[in-house]
Amino acid sequence: MTEELHDLRLIVNGATHAVRVPARRLLSDALRHDCGLTGTHVGCEHGVCGACTVLLDGRAVRSCLVFAVSAEGADITTVEGLTRDDGTLGPVQQAFADCHGLQCGFCTPGFLTTITAGLRDNPDPSEEEARDMIAGNLCRCTGYQNIVAAVRRAAELAADEEPA
Ligand code: FES
Ligand code: FES
């Protein structure tokens, strides 16, 4: 039996992608394979590691736990969408560079999107709050210390950008 396909329009980083996918297609796979946005990484495919985190209408979600068909019409932001319009690094990305918040980089897209959403909720996190913000994301390389520092640095950079 041939599998039924669904025509979807996914709005990713402000651009509309027309894709044709089976109902079982995960959003993580649709982003990577159908939209060509391979910045979203897939580690566990079980909602455990956080590498696949994207923003769905501003909220951090694990894209390996979302069916692509259910994301139609939502405003999706992947790590590719965190740069500024002129192509320079956004504050969370710059903070990771400043604080050496990554080593192999596999987990990094998920941390960047998670922290972007977290700082919207809490723009000035304490060290403990920064640790809480990233508690759901796994990194096998860094020991987290520099990622925590990057959360606080990103908060500073974002605050500096606020209009006075
Ligand atoms: S790949 Fe989605 S949480 Fe690990
Ligand atoms: S930097 Fe390698 S897994 Fe986090």
Structural description of this entry:
The protein is α+β, with helices and mostly antiparallel strands. It contains five helices and five strands, in the order E-E-H-E-E-E-H-H-H-H. A five-stranded mixed sheet has the order 2-1-5-3-4, sandwiched between helices. Strand 3 and strand 4 (59-62) form a beta hairpin. Helix 2 crosses helix 5. The radius of gyration is 16 Å and the shape is globular. The relative contact order is 0.15. Bound molecules: FE2/S2 (inorganic) cluster (2 copies). Residues 42-45, 47-52, 62, 64 line the site of one FE2/S2 (inorganic) cluster (FES).
Strand order of the largest sheet: 2-1-5-3-4
Ligand inventory reads: FE2/S2 (inorganic) cluster
Spatial separation of the terminal alpha carbons: 62 Å
Mean pLDDT: 96
**Strand residues, percent:** 15-25%
Q: How many helical elements?
A: 5
Structural class: alpha+beta
Q: Roughly how many Å is the radius of gyration?
A: 16 Å
| Uncertain parts | none
Shape: globular
Q: Describe the biggest sheet?
A: 5 strands, mixed
Total count of strands: 5
Helix content bin: 25-40%
Spell the H/E element sequence.
Answer: EEHEEEHHHH
Task: Briefly characterize the structure.
The protein is of the alpha+beta class and 164 residues long.
Reconstruct the topology from this structure.
Layout: E1 5-12, E2 15-22, H1 27-34, E3 53-56, E4 59-62, E5 75-77, H2 91-99, H3 108-121, H4 127-133, H5 145-161
Parallel strand pairs: 1-5
Antiparallel strand pairs: 1-2, 3-4, 3-5
Helix pairs in contact: 2-5
The structure holds FE2/S2 (inorganic) cluster (2 copies).
